[in-house]
User: What shape does this take?
Amino acid sequence: MAALRVFVGLADQLQVPPADGLAEQVRTASCDHGIKRWRLYLTPEQMESVAYGLWLHRMTGSAAEANCFGREYGVVHSPARASDHPSAGGAAARGGAGVGGRG
Assistant: This one.
């Protein structure tokens, strides 16, 4: 969750900003302490944006979050795909609307 908070906090400085509504979802996310997961309810576009934000975080040296998100939800940002289909955000796969993730 910390990586997502940084991502949405840097929105005005990024060439590709977070998807519409993602900042609000991150701000209002709740943590289920029993299972140690954050609850986010995301659109497919927001999931792609999260994958992109985690890819950016990976470029700073921490791949754990991006790897976990890709493994659990099947959404991974791929720079090559993003350049082929800019509107797709480079996501390799799309997940459902409800997302619970460790953070």
About this structure: The two ends are 4 Å apart (CA to CA). Strands lie at 30-32, 37-41, 98-101.
